[in-house]
């Protein structure tokens, strides 16, 4: 009889002791998790002044991170704009944070960026809204639309490059910005009118310049000018949407697909459509144009890689010369060019870190992270880690002959927030490099490595000026001299 009491009591006691020990271990682990090393800076403003100084310097805003990474190691903390930021650069941390299987993190941009792209933007929407918007937008980046886009981008590139021999000195960044904006606007809202495109371009530049600014709404501030530019773009998009709703014409661009009536609960609102069209322009134009610019610079500095690339492109040219424009399938015949692109993206690290916010207290790599802290995956440090990429400062496309270590190539991010336009960006870079190498020889005129100030994405200040020599003209001249 006594056994009826003893067995449950012992069981209960066992459970109590077990729970207590788990609780105790958690408390101890929490108290043992170290705060990441770093400097809180001055009261309230923290290290904001140092951050702003880096943005305003020729080394670019990543220099702020690099200096501290060298001083404190893989994981450090700082305070910018009154908030705690942790920067972390290991493939294990990238996996944990970007895959976010435990749901500990959400994406978080600084206030100025959120205000400029709009709170319905994919970049800033709540997790639930993000899921809905992303599912709508992902379907737009289908193989069919990618094929159309390759054809359109190639046509724009051919037209643009055909005017070059009249100019001979070219700023790659300027040309690439023009072509990528035109291509993206055509794809999104079928906007082709030159004057509207020029105005839009100016406003997009104002938004870029405001993204890293202090969110102060005074008429002379960058932030205010960026907000005014956003308002003008919203008005333009309102006009386009209005006309589209009244028209019966089918244009087959992204807007047409987004406006198709569906179930009320899943249909995107006008504001969601507008914010996300702006987001795709912002996320797609500058990044791709900057990547193209870096790629041309790296190729110029690495004649061996350029030689190999030219050989591949010349062979392809023989096969496709009967066609006016490249197709998506043609891009699959450029294995070396694809590696050139990957290597350029690794070295340029256009988006140097990915911002997230901790939703609860957690631990990463033995460091305690508090709920509400900003935690940034420092992709650029991973891209230059000699333990992952040998001779990381050398441009070696063939390093991608073999698969790279998981979570080491982060140019387009990974996980639920991976770049939506990655295939499109790759395609644009392939088309551009094919047309350039098969039409021209070039020499970079200014090898200055300074980074442009006040830009969110890593961009060459010189824009990579080149002198071009038309291959066709060279051939004609040499034939003439022989006869
Ligand atoms: C070389 C060019 C590009 C680079 C290097 C790049 C890089 C990235 C990276 C690293 C992210 C993820 C950031 C994070 O996880 O926090 C991202 C997100 C995104 N990218 Fe790109 N991108 C490029 C081109 C494009 C293009 C052409 C488009 C579309 C037109 C685009 C649209 C987007 C969008 C919408 C997101 C947000 C995805 C989300 O939050 O769910 N990107 N991009």
From TrEMBL:
It comes from the Eukaryota. InterPro entries: Cyt_P450, Cyt_P450_CS, Cyt_P450_E_grp-I, Cyt_P450_sf. It is a single-pass membrane protein. Its main location: membrane. Keywords: Heme, Iron, Membrane, Metal-binding, Monooxygenase, Oxidoreductase, Transmembrane, Transmembrane helix. It holds the Pfam family p450. Belongs to the cytochrome P450 family. This is Cytochrome P450. The lineage of its organism: Eukaryota, Viridiplantae, Streptophyta, Embryophyta, Tracheophyta.
């Amino acid at each position: 009889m006594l056994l009826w009491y003893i067995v449950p009591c012992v069981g209960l006691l066992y459970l109590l002791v077990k729970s207590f020990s788990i609780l105790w271990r958690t408390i101890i682990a929490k108290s043992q998790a170290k705060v990441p090393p770093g400097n809180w800076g001055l009261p309230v403003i923290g290290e904001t002044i140092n951050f702003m100084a880096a943005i305003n310097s020729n080394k670019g805003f990543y220099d702020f991170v690099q200096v501290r990474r060298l001083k404190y190691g893989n994981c450090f903390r700082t305070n910018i704009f009154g908030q705690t930021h942790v920067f972390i650069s290991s493939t294990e941390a990238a996996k944990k944070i970007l895959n976010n299987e435990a749901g500990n993190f959400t994406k978080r941009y600084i206030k100025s960026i959120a205000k400029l792209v709009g709170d319905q933007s994919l970049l800033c929407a709540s997790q639930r809204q993000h899921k809905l918007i992303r599912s709508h937008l992902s379907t737009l980046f289908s193989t069919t639309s990618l094929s159309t886009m390759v054809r359109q981008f190639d046509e724009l590139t051919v037209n643009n490059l055909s005017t070059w021999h009249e100019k001979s000195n070219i700023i790659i960044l300027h040309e690439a910005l023009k072509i990528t904006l035109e291509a993206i606007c055509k794809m999104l809202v079928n906007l082709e009118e030159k004057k509207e495109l020029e105005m839009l371009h100016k406003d997009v530049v104002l938004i870029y310049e405001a993204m890293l600014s202090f969110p102060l709404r005074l008429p002379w501030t960058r932030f205010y000018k960026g907000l005014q530019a956003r308002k003008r773009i919203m008005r333009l998009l309102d006009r386009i949407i209005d006309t589209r709703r009244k028209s019966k014409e089918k244009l087959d661009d992204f807007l047409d697909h987004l406006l198709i009536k569906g179930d009320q609960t899943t249909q995107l609102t006008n504001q969601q459509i507008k914010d996300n069209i702006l987001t795709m322009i912002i996320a797609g134009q500058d990044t791709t144009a900057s990547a193209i610019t870096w790629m041309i610079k790296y190729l110029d500095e690495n004649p061996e890689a350029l030689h190999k690339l030219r050989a591949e492109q010349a062979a392809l040219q023989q096969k496709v010369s009967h066609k006016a424009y490249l197709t998506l399938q043609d891009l699959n015949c450029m294995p070396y060019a694809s590696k050139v692109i990957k290597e350029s993206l690794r070295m340029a690290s256009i988006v140097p870190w990915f911002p997230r916010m901790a939703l609860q207290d957690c631990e990463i790599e033995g460091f305690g992270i508090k709920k509400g802290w900003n935690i940034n995956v420092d992709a650029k440090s991973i891209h230059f880690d000699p333990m992952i990429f040998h001779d990381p400062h050398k441009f070696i496309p063939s390093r991608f002959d073999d698969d790279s270590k998981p979570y080491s190539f982060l140019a387009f991010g990974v996980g639920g927030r991976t770049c939506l336009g990655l295939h499109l960006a790759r395609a644009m870079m392939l088309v551009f490099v094919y047309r350039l190498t098969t039409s021209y020889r070039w020499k970079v005129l200014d090898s200055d490595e300074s980074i442009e100030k006040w830009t969110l994405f890593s961009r060459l200040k010189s824009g990579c000026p080149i002198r071009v020599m038309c291959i066709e003209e060279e051939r004609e001249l040499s034939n003439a001299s022989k006869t």
